[in-house]
Structures are given as C-alpha cells and as structure tokens.
Amino acid sequence: MEQTTFFTLGQRVHSSTDPRRVGTVKFVGNVEGYSGTWVGVDWDNEGDGKHDGSINGVRYLQGRSQNSASFLRPQNLSLGISLLQALKLRYQSQSTEQDEDEMYVLSASNKRVSVQLLGKDKIQDKLSRFEELTSASISYLGVSTPGDPAEISASVPNLKELDLMGNLITDWKDVGTICEQLPHLVALNLSNNLMTQNITGLPLLKAIRVLVLNSTGINWSQVEILEHSLPVIEELHLMGNNISSIKPTSSSTVQGFDSLRLLNLEDNCLAEWDEILKLSQLKSLEQLYLNKNKLTCIFYPDKNKIQEFLSNHESCEESYFPFQNLRCLLLGSNEINDLASIDSLNTFPKLIDIRFSDNPIADPGRGGLPRFVLIARLAKVEMLNGSEISARERKESEIRYVRLVMSKLLDNPEEINCLHPRFVELKNFYGIEDERPSVGAAGPQKMASGLLSITLKCVASSVGEKLPLTKKLPATTTVGKLKALCESFFKLKSLKLKLFLQEEGSPLPMLLDDEMATLMDMGIGNESTIIVDEES
C-alpha cells in the first residue's frame, strides 16, 4: 500500500456530499494539464464515474467500467468516521427544519400537506438513550473505524443487532474489535463493505448467530477460515460475491458449521451441482438459497454413491444421508431444463419448500411445465414458488396430470414409466380408469362423464364488465373451438381472442396458445377457470 499525504492507494472513501457514493482510491498525484493534487477513485456503482481512468490519452488508473472512475480534489472526499460518531449522527442528532419541510404528502389537488409524526419526540428520546439501544442501523454513514473500543462497550452495552451495510470497513480486525466490545451482539450486517482477503487475527465471535456478508468480495476459502471464529453461527448470507466453487480445506465436503440452519448463496456464479453437493454434510442445514446462479441440473446421490462416500469419510455416521435436514431449497432464476432435475427433488428426505420460477423447465412460455404438473411430479412439496399448495390444489393437480398423460401417451406404457415416474402411483391412488372410445348404448354415458364444468371470465376491456359463465364442455374441446364458443357466449364477434388458464397458487395465468390442443391435452380439469381477453 503506497502512502501519500492524505490518502492510501486501496483505501475506501466516499463522496463528502453523499455517503452512498462509495469507492476505492486507485491514484493520488498530479494530472497532466491540471494543477494541484488529484485523487482518482473507482466507484462501486459503475454509473457514478465519468470515465475509465484515462484523461487525454493518459491512463492514471484502470476503472471497473467505462464510467466507473473520476478524479476529485481531496477535500471532496471523506475518509469516514468512527462507529460511535455514526451512532450519534443517526440517533442523537435533531431533525432540521429542512427535514421537517421535506415530510409531506400530495393532496388530490396536488398540494403539499405536511406530515406530523405522532410520538416522534418520545421515540427519538428513547433511541438517543444508547444504554437501552438493542438494535441499530448505521448503513451508508461512512463508518471506517471502530474508534475507542472502551467507548463502544460503555455506550451501547446491550446492542444485539447492528447494520453496517455500505460503509468503509475493510479490516477483519476492526470487525473483531467491534464484536468483542458488544458481548450481546447476535446479528451483524457487513454487506457492501469491501473486506480484505486477510482474515488472520479475528477473535472468537462467541455470540454471533446471523452474519450477512453480501457483496463483500469474500470467497469460499475465506468462509472456511471464518468458520473457526463462528462457533454458534445459524445464518450466513453470501449473496453477490461471484463465488463459482466450494473449496473445503480439510476434506471433500464442507465440515463444521454445526449450528448453521440457513446458507444464502444467491446471485453468485455456481454452475455445477457437484459444487453444491460439497455442502451435503451440513447436518443442521434447513434452508439453502441458490437463486440467480448458473445451475443447469440437480440430482441426489444414489445409494452406491452414498456408500462410497461413507467408506471414504470415516468421521461420518452410518445414518448419514446427504442434506438430511434440508427443508427449503430455492433454485429460481437458474438454467435448469430437464425433467430428471424435477423428479430428483422427491429423493431429498425432508424437502417441502421449493422455488423453481424463472427456470426454462418451469416456464410454460418457454415450453416448460405448468404449475399443476410440477405439483403432481413433486410428491412431498408443500410450498412451490412461494405459494402454499393446499390439499385441494394437490388433488386437482394430480388428477389433471394423470389425465394429461393418458391423453398423450396411453398407447406407450414404456414411455410413461420412463418419463412419468409418479403416473402409475397416482392413477391407482385416484382410481382413474383408462378412457377408450365407447360404442353402443354406453356412448351417451361416456360422453356425459367426459364433460368438464368450466367457468369463463371475460375481461376484454372494449366490451365492459360481463358476468362469469359456467359451461359444461367435452374434454375433447379444442382451444380454437372454445374461442369460437366464447365469441358466441359473450357476443364478441369482432374481436380476436386470447384464452388463459387461471391456476390456484400461480401468480400469472397460463396462455392457451395451441388452438389444436384439447382441454384434456392442456391438463384442464373440472371446475377450472378460463380468462377470456382480447388481443392488444
């Protein structure tokens, strides 16, 4: 680190007028054509700069992007303040008249109406008594140092939760100092503080149960070092750190973290499920967040692989099963696109909460599976994509799924067993018989039994509000035929229609865009609701 009069290369700073504008010092010195000393900063937010670190063809620093760097006078930058200074600034400073003036709402006539906070003085008085403070948020205030350790423990002795997001802290020793002086601290948020690679000297953080390290630049090797200082950690959040691999230090799987219940690895660069399996021996792990990664498939190790694992790891108990207590697995916004990945989730011993949204396999608009098929294929799941699966929705989904498979693959039993592992189980459970074209006197009865009660809701804006209609339609009715019927039912002759299936628990209705597909082909069951709209 090169020393200069005011600043140090690599030092974290923020704009003196905006503590949310945070960056790293990459240059200090003269700039050709301009007098005096300049500080070159590469800002965290790529849009906060003016160039990439070069001026008039001369490069002074290498910015993260074309508009992430800028040069400022030293007086326009702040080196930060201490933890206690930030607490006083946030909780003991009085609101100004300007602050009061900015508190308003707009009336119906677009006039400002001042807002008065009832009990504001009482609340402010309570928060200003530091000895009673149990939770504090001093995010984006430019905290760069703990300050006097003795003052911290004397001022806020009962602090249990501390939010330090977006400050200028970089040294793990400073984190250790803060935690040592706050013996009751159980939750610490260090997100958006760019931490150094060196974690040596960190003391035992005996009370920390929740640690948030989103966008701190940490890698898994550092996480392994941190584990020794976190004996009771229950929640660990590591979002946005470009983690692409899990690298255990002492064996092929991650060890320790005996109390860890929730691990958040969202918004990273994990692409191989083999990397995730290295977490499978975390026996207390109940929630694993993997949204916004690059995973293409998932699988659960078969019995042979489990036995092989046990033989190679003498420390494992005989009763070991991968992810043996995992209840919640979030996989949204990945690149999963195979049925085997869906079906493998049934093998996880206790998994009941799944998120699969924004994956190709679960997006009907990209040829993926609709919600009812996912529910039918996932036998034990109680929560799908953040929406609870009721007993009624499961029953209806499974029956629809069986009828859908029967309509398409009844003459190919081998393909059914291969592609639809739950089909026979569900067909037998609900007592659904094979539906074949019938002849003779039984014909009309078979036709009646194939009728579906469908509720049609017209929402076409050009025709105004219309009451819903409930009609009994043959399961063999095509989407194209249903559009023609809707034109007649709702008197919509001059409109081009779109039909959507409204599914319970699904945030968006499913577009029925194949005019040759039948209601049975689309898995539409009895008492379904179809929305009738017009082309925009």
From TrEMBL:
Amino-acid biosynthesis: present as a keyword of the record? no
Q: Look up keyword Cytoplasm and say if it applies.
A: yes
Q: Which domain of life is it from?
A: Eukaryota
The subcellular localization recorded is: Cytoplasm
Q: Which InterPro entries match?
A: CAP-Gly_dom_sf (IPR036859), CAP-Gly_domain (IPR000938), Leu-rich_rpt (IPR001611), LRR_dom_sf (IPR032675), SDS22/Internalin_LRR (IPR050836), Ubiquitin-like_domsf (IPR029071)
**UniProt KW keywords:** Chaperone, Cytoplasm, Leucine-rich repeat, Repeat
Would you name any one GO CC term? cytoplasm
One matching Pfam family: CAP_GLY
- Quaternary state and partners of this protein? Supercomplex made of cofactors A to E. Cofactors A and D function by capturing and stabilizing tubulin in a quasi-native conformation. Cofactor E binds to the cofactor D-tubulin complex; interaction with cofactor C then causes the release of tubulin polypeptides that are committed to the native state.
Family (UniProt): Belongs to the TBCE family.
The protein, known as: CAP-Gly domain-containing protein
The organism's lineage is:
Eukaryota, Viridiplantae, Streptophyta, Embryophyta, Tracheophyta
